[in-house]
Amino acid sequence: MSFLSEAFWVLLLGSLLGLELIGKVPPTLHTPLMSGANAISGITMLAALTLIIKAGSNIPLLVMGSISLGFALFNVVGGFLVTDRMLAMFSRKPSRK
Amino acid sequence: MNLSDVLKFSIDLLAVLLLALGIKGLSKVRSAREANRLAAVAMILATIGVLVDSYGNLGISIDAWIWIILGSAVGGLLGIFTAKKVAMTAMPETVALFNGCGGMSSLLVALAVALFPSTESTGELSNGFVEIISIVISVFVGSITFTGSIVAMAKLQGWLSTPGWMQSKIRHAVNIGFAVLALVSMVSLLMGGNSGLWLLVVGSGLLGIGVTMPIGGADMPVVISLLNSYSGVAAAAAGFVVGSQLLIVAGAMVGAAGLILTQVMCNGMNRSLVSVLFGGAIGGTPSSGS
Q: Inter-chain contact A52–B264, Cβ cutoff 8 Å?
């Protein structure tokens, strides 16, 4: 039960933090921010990883975990790289504040 | 608390801090690129944390390693390939594709735990009811995120056009039908048994398609941002399913920040979220009519 009550506190505080984290966002950064946040939401790969490690010798579970891990990693790796490509376009312009 | 627990705990704290700083930094032009890298580092740290923890407590079998490496190699390489090859003009649909896959991952995790209940063995969630609820939420939101994102991507790519009846009022009735279908399956899942599971997957998937299909191309980035927020919620729910606080906090952060970003994007376009979601491709609101 202690995990559960802690988990709800974590959920509440995490949500509040997320609400406060971004205030004003310049329009050029809308898509990169969306893409970056999207890459972070691929953190479910940790759940997939945990699933595989705890699966033991249950083959269907291992396969499902592996597919899930693949999807999540596609999201994470692709997400960060694409965000970086987008942001690289900004930095080339010299000192636009 | 042994050494690996302490190590895992500190790594998790650091990862959450870096993720928060990453999201914060991404909203300013000057710090955006570093912030993105910071978030990527946080992600790697978090992965190491899980591996250290499992290694210290249970050990990781050879079988597990094989499947981990297989899954991550395929997903990671495809991710690198897609990110490098895609055209700069096709960014919103690429984000939608990635986002859909994130939703799919949460969906699969919840499905796996629901289908093989004997193996979940986290023990932390002794309260079965909360576990079922978090599985239901994860499946529901994950499925909507997946189909919605794929439809958004296909529409932006021009692979799909909105069928005529989808622009009429009938679509609301159809979508309500899908929502009821999903709701019924949720109730049956909460009553016990797995019979409603696939119905829930299909129902919420159809709901995702039905809600996204009528939305016009100009509004699509807003919808993708909203779907991104959903995938954060799905990740948080998956965190409840496997009992990981790091997942819960990261998912909640992305969910809330995505919601704010959606609102900001709506304001930028002088549209309200309601009119984006329910106005349809041609309907438009009085304020946006040219």
A: no
In this prediction, the residues of chain A whose per-residue pLDDT falls under 50 are: 96-97
Q: For residue B139, give the nearest of B91, B65, B189, B96 by alpha carbon.
A: B189
Joined together, the tokens standing for residue B55 give 């290694």
E strand or H helix at B89, and its extent? none
pLDDT tops 90 at residue B41: yes
pLDDT given for residue B283 in this prediction: 44
Amino acid at A55: A
Task: For residue A26, give the H/E element and its range.
Answer: none
ipTM of the complex: 0.87
pLDDT in tens, B204-254: 998 888 888 888 777 888 888 999 999 999 999 999 888 888 999 999 999
Instruction: Please state, as a whole number, how many other Cβ atoms lie within 10 Å of the Cβ of residue B168.
Output: 12
Which pTM value belongs to this model?
0.86
CA atoms of A84 and B91, how far apart (whole Å)? 12
Q: How far is A50 from chain B (nearest CA, A)?
A: 7
Q: What is the mean pLDDT of residues B64-70?
A: 88
Contacts (Cβ under 8 Å, ≥6 apart) of B163: B213
Q: Give the residue ranges of DSSP H helices in A22-58.
A: 30-41, 45-54
Q: Which residues of A touch B257 (CB under 8 A)?
A: 18-19, 21-22, 37
What is the band of B290 on the pLDDT scale with cuts at 50, 70, 90?
very low
CB contact under 8 A, B247 and A46: yes
State whether B88 and A85 contact (CB < 8 Å): yes
Residue B270 DSSP one-character state: T
CA distance B182 to B193: 16
Contact status, residue A59 vs residue B253, Cβ threshold 8 Å: no
How many other C-beta atoms are found inside a 10 Å radius of the C-beta of residue B87? 8
